[in-house]
Amino acid sequence: MKNPEKKGKKLVYISEGILDEVAAISKKKGESITRYIEDLLEQAVRIDRLGFRSEGLADLLEVIHVLRVLGANFVPLDVANSAIEDEGDAGLSEKWYESGRLYGRYIRDRFKDPVGVLGLMLRVMRWDLNEVAAAQDGHFATVRCVSTSLTGPGASSLSKFIEGAMHGMGYRTEKIESMKGMVIGSFRTE
Question: What is the pTM of this model?
Answer without folding.
Answer: 0.72
